[in-house]
Amino acid sequence: MSEPPRFRRVSAPAGAPEAPATSRLNKRMSELGLASRREADAWIERGWVLVNGEVARMGQQVTMKDHITVAKEATGEQAERVTILLNKPMGFVSGQAEDGHAPAASLIGPHSHWTEDRSKTRFAPHQMRGLAPAGRLDIDSIGLLVLTQDGRIARHLIGQDSDIEKEYLVRVTMLDSPDAQPQNTQARVAPEKLALLRHGLQLDGQPLKPAKVSWQNEEQLRIVLREGKKRQIRRMCELVGLKVVGLKRVRIGKVNLGPLPVGKWRYLAPGELF
């Protein structure tokens, strides 16, 4: 006979977002950073969540004054979930396979695990269950892609209120120039165009958040965004007369791509935070 679950009480962290008078328990748990909504529902279903000392019900409404307690089994299960950093090559889609192109997750396996990964975690097939990309990277873009089993990390990176920086190196040419023609693109871009890339553009009828944009060399821009609309950088560049001919994501939050080779992956290390 299995032992009953052991519980720990969780209080709202300092600076936690204010909640309405009542909200669904899974939503409140997500706001507190305890679990994703789907994960919270699974815990509730297994009897791993108490509200004011009573076993929680699916869909239960709670207030900010209610005491939410989760079983140690839940946090232990959560600790076993992995987050993987992949240097995605061109030709792979971030999510589900489409138009004959394989998903980035198909690259994950023991054969492509970076040999210099310092993590003590070893690859196991169960790590692929529920492993999903936390953000997109276009099929014709390369660089850092995060795949995770942890709903808390996914929400932190791509949740509606996420404000995480994503840094890209973007090779550009002028839209009105033949691709084969060598050129000093930097010299042909007026300062006001660069200013527009930083702030003032709209996509899909919505103003974009301010971005950091600077020249790395005469053909390459460094762009840092705090949002991720579909093909955003390519569309931004087109609006100022530029064509993207190469795009690489090199950083998400505090995590850098670093020397991770193309097509290889490593685990997010313990203590490594976005």
TrEMBL record:
Record region (Disordered): 1-25
Stored InterPro entries: PsdUridine_synth_cat_dom_sf, PsdUridine_synth_RsuA/RluA, PsdUridine_synth_RsuA/RluB/E/F, RsuA_PseudoU_synthase, S4_RNA-bd, S4_RNA-bd_sf
Pfam families xref list: PseudoU_synth_2, S4
Statement: the UniProt record of this protein carries the keyword Protein transport: no
Classification via SMART domains: S4
Catalytic activity annotation: uridine(35) in tRNA(Tyr) = pseudouridine(35) in tRNA(Tyr); uridine(2604) in 23S rRNA = pseudouridine(2604) in 23S rRNA
Enzyme Commission number: 5.4.99.21
Domain spans labelled RNA-binding S4: 23-81
Gene Ontology terms for molecular function: 23S rRNA pseudouridine(2604) synthase activity
Enzyme class: isomerase
Signal sequence residues: none
UniProt keyword RNA-binding present: yes
UniProt keyword annotations, A-Z: Isomerase, RNA-binding
Domain of life of the source: Bacteria
Protein name per Swiss-Prot or TrEMBL: Dual-specificity RNA pseudouridine synthase RluF
